[in-house]
Here is the input.
Amino acid sequence: MLQLLRKGAAGWVAKVFLGVLVLSFAVWGVADVFRTGGSANVAASVGEQQIPLETFRRAYQGELRRLSEEAKRPITPEIARMAGLGDRVLNNLINEAALDESVRAFGLSVSDDEVAREITGDPIFRGPTGGFDRAQFNSILANNNLREQDYVLLQRGFTSRRQITDALTDGVQAPAVLREAVHAFESESRTLSYLTLQQEAPAAVPAPSEAQLKSFYEEHKASFAAPEYRKLATLTLDAAAIAASKQIPEAQLRAYYDENHPRYVTAEKRSIEQIAYPSLADAKAASDRIKAGGLFEQEMIARKITPQDAFLGDLTKAQMFDKKIADVAFALQPNAVSEPVEGAYATVLLRVTGVQQQQVRRFEDVRNDIRKVLAETQARDELRSRHDAIDEARLGGQTLAEIAKAQNLTLRTIDAVDASGLDPAGKPITGLATQADVLKAAFEAQVGSENPAVATGEAYVWHDVLQVSPARDRTFEEAKPLAETRWREEQARKRLATRADQIIAELTGGKTLEQVAQAQKLEVDQTETTRLGGAPAVTQDQATAIFQTPVDGFGKTPPGADGSRLVFKVTAENTRPFDPKAADTTGQAAKIAESLGGDVVTSFVRKLRDDLGARVDQGAVTRVVGGGEG
Here is the structure.
């Protein structure tokens, strides 16, 4: 969280500090930067700036904690040392100290008001209302063992350093020549004529000989191995099934309808138009003109508003913000214009152009919906109690079969299933609630073990592992049907590739696409594609093959999702004119500018470090990263 605080407090500059400037020794080197020496209470110093050992310890432990949270497992000090974590954290602190020395040398400072604005504007301290929340602020600081004055000092330092980095990066833009190169790469397209070769159905491939099939089996023997299968007994307690069996008395259905009558009423809606006036006198004058034969539309024109601006919408009375205006609007006759209405915020004339009458759904129309709601409510209440009863029976030694009989549930036996949910024939099992979770638990359990229910929001599934069939190699006879299927599929792919190669040979030999198409009974199509594909029949992988082919050259694409290939001729290479004044819609220019700005800051800090030198007390640092202290 401290890392998050540092990022939030520094804004854009934190991306420089904690992204570009969190550098390993591979970037900065070792011997030319660090020289030992100093106080035991100081981890390092740069110029006149010192990095207290406690500051380094706190930063190191915070980064260790953050990485452990990201990895969802503890990162031990040994692993951290192997990864050079302490070196990287100290490097970052040295970078900041070098900038602090530069701030001091330039005589820069930050006002208290600016620090306050930075803190109160930080998104991580926003509360439910979207503004700065003092309780959130205090909570985050407490979780990171920071006092308010400590954090204010951190923020002041970040903001001071930003004065330098902002000055360095202000106005940094992607050079036009680089933007033009990116534009050329991304906008370039190829025009091509092509034939689509469909892969034949594997079943149409002539059957293999016994020798071919045995050879294929031996080459791919590992892929024909039978996985581990398990025989399972499962018992499912499902709220939906409980609800389906519920019988709700008619009187209870009727009582629910009466108690919840408003939800079955669709309130009256009115299509309302409104013209607002600066004063009551202006509104009365307009009303008089309409009464004398003028039109509401003429008043719109006079007020310079469009019909769209005048139309408030199709609204219920409750949806209207101003109660006084709502009362008048819902008392008007259709197409009549109101008298001037002095609302809470405006004086208006109203017109109602349409009325959708209130509608009430009859009990007979919603009876089944009510039965479903009540049944599901009762089922959810019953689900927990029945779950507890089943668990108690399991603890009492009853088998799933005995429990199923007592609870009037169905015990399901799955004779054989692998971890992915397939039976020995390769068909998926179906109808098992929370199947993925049940199978995961079942393949972690032992035969005869008592396993807890696998739970989802609306169901529980108990399971017993009855038998385990270990993974094994299938014999040739067992694998023969599957081997033949795969052999035919492979042959279909090979035959299509050979066909594509033969066509390319004919094309390079002088035949035209049209001549080949006629002989192959195919159609010649044309399209244009970028490097990302996107054109009809062209995927990104296929576009790669197209862009590797010169203009007037022939080629073939990799298979598409359906196995088909394109044999093509590149007929043109297209480029789009580059307009340096055009807005960058790809975001590439901003990324380039950000990268260049990072390079500028990195170079500046590198020079600072070279000029100021850095001194490190390696013994003190080792006590932190080696676990000798803290």
Observations:
- Residues 363-395 form the longest helix (33 residues).
